[in-house]
Structure formats: C-alpha cells, structure tokens
Specification:
231 residues, alpha/beta, Rossmann fold, 6-stranded parallel sheet, 3-stranded antiparallel sheet, 8 helices, 6-phosphogluconolactonase_DevB, hydrolase, EC 3.1.1.31, 6-phosphogluconolactonase, 6PGL
C-alpha cells in the first residue's frame, strides 16, 4: 500500500519528503539511522535541498549512508550515482568518511556486489535473514524500473541476495542493485518521482502492475509513501 502525496512542484515534493525522513530519524531516538539513497537525475533536487535549506536541520551524526544502486563506472565518471551525490550533497555537509558506504562501481561487478552485500548485512540489523534499512529512497524510471531492476526482471527482484549485478536493457551496461526483498523489509520506503514524463508510468506503478518493477514492489509493500508533482 502506498500513500500518495502530490505537490505543485518538485521542490515542494522534495521538501515534504525531507520532513518525512526527518520524522523517521526523530522516531529512531539515539540509534544510528541507516539510509539507502537512489541515483539518477531526480534525486539531485532532493540532495540539493538537503545541502542548502536543511543543512543545519538534518542530524548528520546519526546517519549511515548507503546506495540503492550504482552504475559500474569509476566514482568520477559522469554516470556515477555516488559521484553525483558527492558533488551535490556529501561535499557540503558534515559527514565523515566512516558514515559513507559507497558501491565501488570501478571494481569487478560480481565481486563488488558480494562485497557490498556482506558489508550491508554486517552493519545493519537483521529480520528474516535480510538486512533492515531504516529508510530506502527510491525513484521510478519512465520504463517503470526502480533500483536498477528493469521490466522483465522480476526474478531478480525476489533474489535471495542483498545486491545483484544487472544489465541495463539496450546498452548492456552493468549495474549493481539492491534487490526487492531487502526493500520490502525496510522500516520506511519513500518514492520520489517528478516530471511530466513520469505521469503514465506512475499511474501504472501505483496500481501495483507487476509488469513494471516499481509496481511489483509497491503492490507488496505493507506501507510506503510517494512524493510527486506528476499526478
């Protein structure tokens, strides 16, 4: 089940999402807050807001930062999710290197997926043998993909592995992606989707259409929130 929050602009949606995350952090008390971030173009609006308007409000010391997915490129490559986040957010806020856990996109993909899975499994609490993130931030692509899990790849969504290596349709480029079961076990899941080009696929995903990974996951989440300007 997903709660839909629709706003007039992407910045308003990003602001509301930020406040929802802050509420989750507050509810966690004195515990470390493990949060997984998505890449792509849409989160840049959110991360810019965190670095500017919310820099002095977010309790950075409590956070441990992870990534939902990563393209298999070096961190200084224009397509690197970590590289984008570092430039817009990480370099501008008081986070130490010990709090930032990036996926090494420059390494051999299969080995890195195993390494990162083991790291996440070691640092996070566990439920039903799966690591439990306090919060997972997801986007939805115009084809309905989320976490670099693409249409026709539902078998990867239910993989027993925490992170897997996947091929991007068309280009064949490798990506490392968080699978569906850890997402379903997260304490909170937030979707951030903006832009006119997302309206059609967003309606499809909200209905829980299994033909797109975002819809597949939404249909199986006990609780999630969507923040958008696209409905």
């Amino acid at each position: 089940m997903v709660k839909i929050n629709n706003y007039l602009s992407s910045k308003e949606a990003a602001c509301a999402l930020t406040k929802a995350v802050l509420e989750q952090i507050e509810h966690s008390g004195n515990k470390i807050f493990h949060i997984a971030l998505s890449g792509g173009n849409t989160p840049a609006t959110l991360f810019r807001l965190w670095a500017e308007d919310f820099r002095d409000i977010i309790p950075w010391k409590k956070l441990q930062i992870y990534w939902v997915d990563e393209r298999c490129v070096p961190s200084d490559h224009p397509d690197s999710n970590f590289g984008m986040t570092k430039k817009i957010l990480l370099d501008k806020v008081p986070l130490s290197e010990m709090q930032i856990h990036r996926i090494h996109g420059e390494e051999e993909p299969q080995n890195e997926a195993k390494r990162y899975s083991a790291l996440v499994e070691r640092l996070l609490p566990e439920k039903n043998t799966f690591p439990v993130f306090d919060s997972v931030l997801l986007g939805i692509g115009i084809d309905g993909h989320t976490s670099s899990l693409f249409p026709g790849q539902n078998s990867l969504i239910i993989s027993p592995d925490t992170y897997i290596v996947n091929e991007e349709p068309g280009s064949g480029r490798h990506r490392i992606a968080l699978t569906g079961l850890p997402i379903l076990h997260a304490r909170s899941v937030f979707f951030f989707v903006t832009g006119e080009d997302k309206k059609e696929i967003l309606r499809k995903a909200i209905k829980g259409d299994d033909s797109c990974p975002a819809g597949y996951i939404i249909a199986r989440l006990e609780e999630a929130e969507l923040f958008t300007d696209s409905i």
